[in-house]
Amino acid sequence: MKTVNLMVAGLVAMPMAAQAQTEISWWHAMTGANSEVVEKIAADFNASQSDYVVKPVFKGTYPETLNAGIAAFRAGQAPDIIQVFDVGTGVMMGAQGAIKPVAEVLTEAGFAFDKSQYLPGIVGYYSSPEGEMLSFPYNSSSPILYYNKDIFEKAGLDVDNPPKTWAEVWAAARQIKSSGAATCGYTSTWLTWIHTENFAAWNNVSWASNENGLAGTPELAVDGPLFVKHFQEIADLAKEGVFVYGGRTSEAKQNFTSGECGILTESSGGLGDIVKAGINYGIGQLPYDETAEGAPQNTTPGGASLWVMGGKSDEVYKGVGTFFNYLSQTDVQEFLHQESGYLPVTMAAYEATKASGFYETNPAREVPITQMMGKEPTENSKGVRAPNLPQIRDILNEEFEKMLAGQQTAQEALTAATTRGNAAIKEATGG
User: Fold this and answer.
1) What is the three-class DSSP state of 119?
2) Average pLDDT of the chain, as a whole number
3) For the stretch 255-287, what's the b/e string if a residue is b when 16 or more beta carbons lie within 10 angstroms of its beta carbon?
4) Could you say which of 2, 266, 290, 421 would form a disulfide bridge with 392 (CB–CB 3.0 to 4.6 Å)?
5) d(Cα 61, Cα 389) in Å, to the nearest integer?
6) Is residue 188 within 8 Å of 145, Cβ to Cβ?
7) Structure pTM?
C-alpha cells in the first residue's frame, strides 16, 4: 500500500513539474545545416536551465514565415519569437503594439543590456532612430567580393591583390574579358541589396530621406549622381559583354562557380556554395567609389533577426530575455558564427574567434565583420526602411533589367524607379 501511494504521489508530481517550465515558441525559416544549428542552440539552452523550454518551429521561407507571423498575430495566436528577414524589418518596426523591443525585454528580465557589446553596424540596423535595439540580430551577413585566382593569373592580374574600388573592378573585369581568361569579367547577385542599399551605406550617400526611412516615411534618393554614375558604368560593361546579369537574387553565383565570370559580388553567406564548387577563389572587401567623400563607411547586414511579439505574459518575456542573454554568450556566438558562416553578434565572440586563429584558416569570415566595424554608422549607413520594400526592390529590378537590355540609360532607369518607388510607398502609407 505504501508503494502504491508513493507511485501515485510520483505520478501526480510529474505533471506539476512539467507545468513549472514555461514554453517559448520560436518560429524560424532556417533549412539544412542552419536548421540543425537552430535545433542545437535551443536544445543546449533547454538543458542549461529548468525554468524554460524553447521550441523551434520551421515555418517555411523568409516571406512565408513573416506572412505566417502576421496572420497568427491577427488571429491572436502569435509566436513568442519570430525570425524576420532584413526586408521585413520596416514592416515589424511599423507594427505598433505587435512587438516588444528586445532591449526592453532583456532589461526587464534583469539582464544588464549594453549595446556597445554588440557589433555597431548590426545594432544600428536593428535599432530605432533613438538608438533602442528592437530585435535580436540572429543571423547577419554582409556583401563582399569573390574572385577566381586562376582566372586572375591567366589575365595577368595580381592574385594577391583584389580590386578595392569600383574603378579597379571595371578595369580588372575588362582585362579578364579582353585577355580571354574568361568569357565574363564581372557579375553580381542582388543588384538592389548590394548596388543600391549597401552602395549607399558603404559610400555614405543617402538612399532615401528621413535617415533612409528610419526616422519617418522615406522618399527615395537612388536617382542621385553617384548612383547614376555607378549604374551607367555597369550598363556600359554589359554592352561590352564584360558584365553578365544573372538574376534578381543569388542566381549570378552560378556564373561565378561555373568559371564563366572572374569576379563576383555576393553575400558572405554564399561562401559555402563557392567552397563546394572547388574553385581557387579569393576574397576582398566590397568595392567602394573612390570619388565618394569618406568612403568606405560601413556596410549594412542582410540575413534576419529575432523579434519578440507583443501581448505575452511577464513569465514568457522573462524566458525570452533569458534565452537572448544565453544567445549573447561568447561560446554560443562563437558556435553560431563558425558553424553557420553568419556574423557573430557580440564583440567578445568576434575577439574570441580571432584569438583562436579561426580567421587565419578562414580569412573570408572576417572581411564582412570588419566592413561593419570600421566606423560609427551615420544617417546614411544604419540601413534602410520602407513600408513596401519588397515591392520597391521589384521596381528597381524591372528598371535595371530594361537598362541592361539597352532600352534606357541609367539616369532614365533610376528616375523611373524613384518615381514608381515613391508611389508604392505612398500607397502603402495611404498618402
Assistant:
1) coil
2) 90
3) bbbeebbbbbbbbbbbbeebeeeebebbbbbbb
4) 421
5) 17
6) no
7) 0.79
